[in-house]
Design brief:
Layout (H helix, E strand, L loop, with lengths): L4 E2 L8 E2 L9 E4 L3 H12 L4 E4 L3 H8 L10 H10 L3 E4 L2 H6 L3 E4 L14 H15 L5 E5 L7 H14 L7 E5 L9 H6 L5 E3 L3 H11 L7 E3 L1 H29 L6 H8 L23 H14 L5 H23 L4 E5 L14 H11 L3 E5 L10 H6 L5 H6 L3 H4 L4 H7 L2 E4 L4 H8 L6 E3 L13 E2 L4
Parallel strand pairs: 3-4, 3-6, 4-5, 6-7, 7-8, 9-10, 11-12, 11-13, 13-14, 14-15
Antiparallel strand pairs: 1-2
Helix pairs in contact: 1-3, 5-6, 11-12, 12-13
Length: 466
Amino acid sequence: MMDMQLINASQAVPVQLDKITEKPCISVVGLGYVGAVSTACLSSLGHPVIGVDVDISKVEQIASGISPIHEKDLDRLLLEGIERNLIHTTTDVSQAVVDSDVTFVSVGTPTSEDGGCDFSYIDTAARSIGLGLSRKGGFHTVVMRCSIPPGTTLEMMAPVIEEVSGKTVGVDFGICFNPEFLREGVAVADFHAPPKTVIGVTDSRSERIMRKIYSAVDKNVIVTSVETAEMVKYIDNVWHATKVTFANEVGRLCKPLGVDSHDVMDIFVQDTKLNLSSYYLKPGFAFGGSCLPKEVRAVAHIAEGIGVNLPLIKSLSTSNSAHIDAAIQMAKDTGARRIGVFGIAFKPGTDDLRESPILEVMAALEEEGIEIFVHDSAITKKTSLSGQLSYMRHGSPGLRALASRLSDMLYDDAVVVMEKSDAVIVTHAHETYRKILKNDEQKPVLDLVRLNSSKTAGPNYAGIGW
């Protein structure tokens, strides 16, 4: 590392940054909430850290061991870092890059006028980083930590750094995306005991460097693509917002009915098998069955009857219908006039057709004159539908429309369905279907359950969400 004039208020005069080679020196660009916490916590792991910001007041505060934000234990860690000569601050981004091995970027990404993301701070940081890289030799890793739309790191930031520095990403410098999952108020504790550590990388050298940095706090780092890491940050926060909104709507529904909403949710969260788990949280097909659609409608109806507005809960059926419409359009886009369907019950292992979403797809395709062939491991021509039809007479247009003709569409042999069809829709993750599809990779396949988890599935193979 080259010498650098840095602010260190503990000595009240500029000092030279010591050359510490045991752990990589990290420059942190942006000393707001995430940057300040990262500066303190990285130094607590023994890394020399250069905090960088254009706001001189933040620079001077941190150089004095004073937190620019209210956050438990942050003052203490900053002061310890200063006393150990591990934390230095500056307003010079380019020089900080020259004097460090890794650069964490935590600049602001406010909402732009059109509701999107304002990239101006990222662009400014990228140009300063590029200037710094142009002045130094050796490999340098740039780590984005801001919330940004997928593609921003590689399609916007990396090209700017390459242009200004004259260097090549993946060769002369690495670029990563490392989202933060720090809760305000307990951010220091979260850094040292993270819920997860995600690193999107493009080269193995940067991966090794990042693993080394986080090894002290997380032995199970999740390594993925840069775009996936970018999206994870957004989806985490949207999910948290969804949970807050859902709980608030439960409260608004319960109160006028004289039900204690906290009692309800205290019981709700005790279910970690379904309610608080990964179950139901994989993109696939629409929800269906005898319970979910009916009860979503019932809750919306109850709320309407007592004058309570529940936009999230009311929108569930709308979103579910949009998912079904997407499947219909994708099936039509194949151009096939003969379509096979593998699995028609609302889920595998049952013969329950009540509000099975694939029936709505089949009914719509039939209206277009498309011939349908069906196989389901639990349903035959002898399966009685009379009870299901009576039960769902107000809730399942697809089942009513197909009931009289469904037995004629059914085949006991899935291979026959495959042979008769020009395209196939799969709704059940059944090994029989997986084997059949492996033998014919030419026909278009609309896989609604992701039978094939490979990211290199053929061009004729797709799902609604992949």
